[in-house]
């Protein structure tokens, strides 16, 4: 009896000492609660389209703060069921729950730890995860302090927004987006239960990495929810058997606009530095989702089409396949992890290859058999005589593409580069931008950074200059071979030639542009002088230092970017005004307050005029002719009268371009190799770039009616062609009556248009 009394007294003394230690030693040294009473979560920088579609996110943490009032009730119940059933009943430490957990754990029942949600908040905000007595005592005291300072809902709100849930996601709102690509309120019970199972061990129960373990943990959560009557038996059974489609590729966005997002990020970082990534800044661009989707798909589709026209290059690499199934799977998984995916171009390893079928294994362990048309591209690599480094055999690493009706084909990642940009002709607002085939494979933005020869895309600007020197679309140019001496070129003698080797003799300037005649363009520049033509390009925003001061200027041997070319063609599209392309419409802070805004540009002002309205009008008529009867005649398939543009192909087909406009949209497409080489003897701007432009415009113009242009004052139409009034003198009228007998052009000689 005395022993029991002694033990009891000793227990009281120990408890008293512990309480004294907690109150006198630990409590005074507890950290301030400012970080949670004035909670400011690290919200990443987010980039949106003009129609508020998320296209980019930058920051160390993926986080979407959701107020407790907006948290789905079932999400709260899922968490309480598995983490802290008595959360709304205890005062921070659940002694009853802890004793119950000990008993349950010993008897093999439901396993639940002793940490309450309040204790986890204390740990996440203030303490380490080291399992030492000192830290646990601090955790207990902090839990009481937090409970005294905040309401239960406030504590739960902190927990649900702060907890780490794997894949760089913090909080359940972010996890819903990362794992399912949905908003939290749109998740099913099964999906919420899966997320609720993550806090205990995000790495171990990560559904993107360990789907089997995640499923097991989800079932534990669902069972507990059923035991607590949080869900009905029908809901329980449905959730148990619901297939979960987890995004195992990390953060993704509904629209592919990676190059756009990076441009916007650079602008924000230049202003706000590291605060850009944690203050919840949102950037709204001028990009339109439908336009961006059309541009992205068009670039991908047409680059792949070009690539496949030029044949299969063989497997990307080879690996040895171990004999054992487990060892083989590990070897395949390791090899494919080193091969980044490219949207729908999935890396795979060949397991078996024959003339009529090829079996591969994808990164998810799925075996796929490819046959029929799916082998068309790779057929040469299946031939009996194929060289070893080219032949498809077990261990070869290839790319596969899923087509319609769940069919598969062997493909490859293209080596050729491409770019596309579209802007509003009147305001300069970007509508779409695709800086390359795949941002994840190459960050270089060809729209803004690639300086390439424009080829024949430069010719409209030379023709525009000629209009100011008295030429008209009816002016006759002699399309016959031309040889220039060293004295004329300032270097060696030069004999420019037409791309197709065909010379038509005397033709109108309109026809010369429509057919993209090189010799005629050189004759025009020689007549108006290189100095005048070179200086005239400055009106359109071209960097004159990158343009040659010789006659090759007429053939586009200088350097431009696709964005520069789009801005230049916009001047023809909008009637002669220079506009400044812009991407960002507004930037708002984490509270939604506007901190930077680009107001819509005012109506085109005369102060922005860089060329005569008559010049823009007449050049536009010639550019429309290009798309009706010239090198861009395929554009007629769009069935619109306001389509205008120009193809561009550089020497040896190093670059292919199409620049044009319609419906108030200006767009430029380009294709070429980063390490310049020929696109192929049968490739031109019309075959590689124009299809990209066409596929985009077909979508972008659907809701835009054709634009009619009023005839500016000061123009007179004679025999179907437009002339400046001041050039309608007797000499000009006389020259129009000269007929077809036109000498090599030394001065403007005019005749009626023949087409």
UniProtKB/TrEMBL annotation:
Membrane topology note: Single-pass type II membrane protein
GO biological process terms, semicolon-separated: cell wall organization; peptidoglycan biosynthetic process; proteolysis; regulation of cell shape; response to antibiotic
Molecular function as annotated in GO: penicillin binding; peptidoglycan glycosyltransferase activity; serine-type D-Ala-D-Ala carboxypeptidase activity
Compartments, as annotated in UniProt: Cell inner membrane
Record's keyword annotation contains Protease: yes
Matching InterPro entries: Beta-lactam/transpept-like, Glyco_trans_51, Glycosyltr_51/Transpeptidase, Lysozyme-like_dom_sf, PBP_transglycosylase, PCB_OB, PCN-bd_Tpept
Protein name according to UniProt: Penicillin-binding protein 1A
